[in-house]
Amino acid sequence: MSDILFRTVRVIDPSQDLDLVGNFLVRNGRVADWGALVDTPDGAIEIDGTDCVLAPGLVDMRADLGEPGGDYRETIASAALAAAAGGITSVATLPDTRPAIDDPALVRQMRARGEETGSLSILPYAAVTRGCAGEEMAEIGLLREAGAVAFTDGARAIASARMMRLALAYARGFGATIVQHPEDPSLAAGGAATSGELATRLGLPSIPAAAEAILVARDIRLAELTGGTLHFAHVSTAEALDLIRTAKQRGLNITCDTAPPYFDLNETAIGAYRTYAKLSPPLRADSDRQAVVAALADGTIDAIASDHQPRDADDKRLPFAQAAAGGTGLATLLGVTLAQVHGGKLSMSQAIALLTSRPARILGSTAGTLQRGAPADLCLFHPERAWQVESGELPGQAQNTPFDGRAMEGKVIGTWKAGTRVFGA
Amino acid sequence: MSRHLLQIEGMYPPAIAEMLDLAESYVLLNRSGKTQRDLLRGRTLINLFFEDSTRTRTSFELAGKRLGADVINMSVASSSVNKGETLLDTAATLNAMHCDLLVIRHGESGAPALLAQKVDASVINAGDGTHEHPTQALLDALTIRRRKGRLEGLTIAICGDVLHSRVARSNIHLLTTLGSRVRVVGPPTLIPTEAARLGVEVFHDMREGLQGADIVMMLRLQKERMTRGLVPSAREFFRFYGLDAEKLAYAKPDALVMHPGPMNRGVEIASAVADDPVRSLIREQVEMGVAVRMAVLDILARRNRPNV
Predict the structure, then answer these.
(1) B110 vs chain A: nearest CA distance in angstroms?
(2) Partner residue opposite A204 with nearest CB, options B83, B85, B109
């Protein structure tokens, strides 16, 4: 393995409040040193970093990679290509696969599958309930021991208040976090779009924004009751964010993330039944989108996840209500997030923190940092370079992006995993 | 000008007037007992019905035949093929058959729009899910215009299950576009939360909603709404939202009654009102349906292959 020197690059690592322009040295696959005086050792590769940003490899805290059971949509190998192209070096995978990740052997296998890629660490979530069916608690202790980073039933909400109470209380004994898909299932059943004028005009069954707030309010109360640690995934509404903001101010162990579609798009993206923009939760009104942007800026939202949900063309070429929800997100995670930096809503280091150190902290992972001695997981990007998202041309197998046609400003130049280049010439 | 008729929303008044005016001439033709079999001679019209319908399918079939088209009925209401995936397979099949006019009814909102992207034929939406039913709105408008002489300024109350009604949506778009004052009347569980944003007035008390109305348009209430708990029972619905002589008396003395059919007598409408020869336009709506569909087929066939 060659040593690497990045020359005159802007190094940003929010985990150490680092933001400087200088040289950055990687030796033996680990971060060695940085600064103006650091120079190229013999035999090292030199990379010109002028005008570019060097950040920790991104930590994506929510993705479905297809496997096991959904290989026709995406495989771990193909998702690893998309992740590398997106600057992502660690990903937390959802457990509502077939079979569900509810057995310690499956957790170990997911970790091993990540290592096999050589480019992407898999940080597996495990199921809260067996089969993610919401009925019997899974072996949270054994799953934790096997390496599960946190517990969730994936795209299925933990519907029963009793089950949620038990899970929060029991997981607390193992220092584990419960991750909720915050959507009341009885209000969401059959829904395809957010309730409002557009859904009414299109004649689509709808899900009220309140379905999110109702579950968030309930679960905050249960977290308080049990002292458990709770994380809400892909929060999309103003009302839910207000509840979370207040709960955090009261000192509860509550965190949340959102995904790029919820701060970049609104319900109008579904236009004339555009199924690639059918997501779960559904795209919301623009007032909700603006509230998500504000919550990113004020710190209420702790992380931005790709919420990558690969779908086959046949899952999407259907009448809207029958089409599968979900969009790809690995390759577009950084670019869409940078739009908030260019738009003046987030600082560059805030944006990178939302994609690296903050999700890593929630997951209890050592990734997402450039501390000396840490494995050199790196993302080098040019913050202004333009490109266009084109379904059919994205890296990886799944092409169901809700951002088809969007112009992007900010492009990944190279990605390194433990000092080995895994993306870029 | 689109070569399809997928929805009323977004149509401009002249395009609607063109269809109504031509339909008017077809009413006269039909009453005279004559046909115009040379107009669509050699053209193929396929009725593709993913949901059961006798009235609408028959009406399109008759309209096509009176203009000389070769009409084929494909009924695919059985569940095994009622899947979206076959919808696009069906599109490929229809293209291979060189179909000119495709009339589609489907249980999912947006299904005709999806099909329209993939077929060469002109697609006519004959009802999609809870989205739109454009020819029903056109025939309703023609019926009203012939009886009242105009649409502008009339007060029209659309009553019942507005939430699930494609007929209501198409009528709201068409009537508001042509300057009618539209009200929707029904229990809050059957009115969309954003109904007012469609440019209508919302009433939950039927007597208030009918006050001063020129037209009372009733909608069909499906039994499924009771089993899913949106209304407690048929008798309660009839008591508060069923049209009987007593409630009709709140409308204008010359108010007329419409229903897209098929009717649930004693649920949304009393037989005495439905069968009233002076007030009820229900049979006339069926007659106008054939004329309107002839006009739509005629116009779309010319748009799709103008040189033939």
Answers:
(1) 6
(2) B109
Q: CA B298 → CA A227, A350, B67, B135, distances in Å?
A: 70, 61, 8, 13
Specify the CATH number of the domain A56-363: 3.20.20.140
CA distance A373 to A120: 19
Q: What are the structural domain ranges in chain A? A: 4-53+376-424, 56-363
Q: Is A307 a catalytic residue?
A: yes
Of A197, A314, A322, the CB nearest to B108: A322
Whether B113 and A314 lie within 8 Å, measured CB to CB: no
Determine whether domain A4-53+376-424 maps to CATH 2.60.40.10.
Answer: no
Q: What is the ipTM of this complex?
A: 0.90
Q: Write the single-letter amino acid at A22.
A: G
What are the pLDDT digits (tens) for A96-152? 999 999 999 999 999 999 999 999 999 999 999 999 999 999 999 999 999 999 999
**Closest to A256 measured CA to CA, from A217, A191, A301:** A301
Higher-pLDDT residue of B82 and A202 is: A202
Give the list of residues 6+ apart from residue B36 with CB closer than 8 angstroms, or none. Answer: B29, B66, B67, B68
Rounded CA gap, B170 and B306, in Å? Answer: 28
Residue B102 distance to chain A (closest CA, Å): 17
Question: Is pTM, for the whole model, over 0.90?
Answer: yes
